Structure formats: C-alpha cells, structure tokens
Amino acid sequence: MNRERNSERNLERVGRDGFLCLRFARSGASTILAQSRFSLPLQSLTPLKLDGGASYMMLLNPTGGVLGGDHLVTEIAQEAGTHVCLTTPSATRIYRTAEKPAVLETVIRLGEGATLEYFPDHIIPHVGSALRQSLRIEMARGSRAIVLDSLASGRVAHGERWCFTEIDSRTEVYVCGKPTYINRAKIVPSVKRPDQLGMMEEFDYISCMGLFADGFTSWKEVSAGLNEELKSMPHVHGGTTLVSRGGCVVRFLARSASDMTLANKKLWDAARGLLAGLPAFDHRKY
Asked: Which of 42, 109, 145, 161 has CA 20 to 30 A from 219's CA?
C-alpha cells in the first residue's frame, strides 16, 4: 500500500483524480479498519461490525456519478484472517463524455485465510458515456472471495437502451500468484448492438458473480446449489460455470433493475452459505 496519488491538477485536463486506500486488520475475533486514506471524489463510510466479527463497509462517490476523464483508483489490503464485506450505497452513474473515457481501477489483496465479499451496485451508463474499468484480486493461501459485477443497458426508465459509446471491463483473479479467472467484456453499441437475437435481446440488465477459494473442493455442490437458486427466480435467465482452477461463476440476465437486485441478494446469501457456511444478513443501505 505504498502508492500515492498526485493531488496536483492539470487545469487543462477534463476530469478528476480520486484515490481510496484501505487496510483491514484483525483485532481479537473482529476485523477492523486499520488505515484509511482518500481523495475526492472517492470516499468510504465508517464500517459496521457484523455478527461473527466481519467488517461491512460502503464505498462512496459523493459527487453522484463518474464523469468522462475521471481516473479513480481504489486499493484495498486485507491482512491475514480478516473478513470484509464491501458494497456501495447505490448504482454508479457514468455520465456523457466528449473526450476521454472514465477510468475506474480497483486492486484488492487478500492475506492468508482472509475472506472478501465485494458487491457494488450496478453501473448505469448514460447516453454518450465511455468507461474503462478493471478489478484485480490477489488471493493468498487459504483465502476466499465472492465478487459481483452488474451492468444496466442505460437509463431504461428514460427509454435509453445501449446508447453509451463504450464500456471496456476487465476482471482478474489470482490465487497464490497463479491466474484463476480472467474475464474481459467490451461493448461498443455503435459497432454491434447487444440487443440482437442471440445476445441480450429484450433483457436490459446483466450480472456476473464469481466465487473463488484456495483449498476448497466442493465446487460441483456449490454450482448445483446456485443453479437451484436461479431456478427459483423465474424473472431472470442464467446459469453457472465451473472454473478450472478452484472457482465458480454465475451469470444471468434480467429485464428490470428490481429483478436483478433481488437475484443478486439471493445469490449472495446462497453463496455465503455454500462457500463459507455463513448465514444471510440484512442488506439494508439506509
């Protein structure tokens, strides 16, 4: 955690630099926030303590959205044996840009035996917006992670579907230094509309949840359990895939934000139980 952002701004440049640096440590049976540094437009709220000692924190952008040219970097370190649940208070809006895209970079490092639950709300791209985002998770021996990534086709209530310029998203998960999961999605609606037959069609929301754990072996049972959860939700369409090196990925499509949000919560609760034997908890964000 030795990276510092240069706070000086180039007045000719469009957009802002934001930086959030968090370090979590063990204190007895609990996980505590041991270090926090940030520069707006990134910020974090005071963490809450869950039953069992996990730390539940909301990552915040108080400006209400991300503008073209913004470069926002988040670095999080979890020391050995920590358990952290990270989320956001609401969806992330990506606003129109006339020049450079918005850039979001997140790196999370897990110490031995650490547990991560990373569940940000979905991204809503506005007309003419462009986003490049990356998430890199580095897991040590005995650690585990549940990670969510969700996207809307646009401001659906305003009749905006696939009207953004570009979204380029990359997720990388490394376990004990070896690549376990690398996924890249690049959507350029002007080149190929995602709502074509055989692609998104009439669905406006897509969600992807990844489960990863070093030393865990019951992946077939986890996959079957998550598939059963999907079958119980008739308003979404999806399935699970096993990762060749210790993991499972769930992908599904939804027609409405409420259907997607409900499915995300149900799958999150199921994943906690199947992977870590943890009970569901209150998802309230107010």
From this structure: 109
**242 belongs to a structural domain:** yes
C-alpha distances in Å from residue 105, one per residue of 24, 35, 133, 255, 276: 19, 19, 6, 28, 28
Give the whole-angstrom CA distance, residue 243 versus residue 212.
Answer: 9
Report which of 165, 124, 105, 136 is spatially closest to residue 261, judged by C-alpha positions. Answer: 124
For position 109, what pLDDT does the model report? 98
Domains contained in the chain, number: 1
Can you list the alpha helix ranges (DSSP code H) found in the chain? 219-231, 257-276
Q: Phi-psi category of 81—alpha, beta or left, where left has phi over 0 and alpha has psi -120 to 50?
A: left
99 within some domain: yes
| Global pTM value | 0.91
User: Are the C-beta atoms of residues 131 and 66 closer than 8 Å to each other?
Assistant: yes
CA distance 280 to 273: 8
How many residues can be counted in the chain? 286
Residue 146 lies in a domain: yes
Taking only the tens place, the pLDDT of each residue in 55-83 is: 999 998 877 789 999 999 999 999 999 99
Query: By percentage, how much of the chain surpasses pLDDT 70?
Result: 94
Residue 260 sits in which domain range? 17-276
What are the C-alpha distances in Å from 164 to residues 120, 123, 181?
21, 12, 27
Q: Is residue 10 part of a domain?
A: no
Tokens of 119: 């569940």
Residue 96, CA atoms < 13 Å, CB-side half-sphere: 6
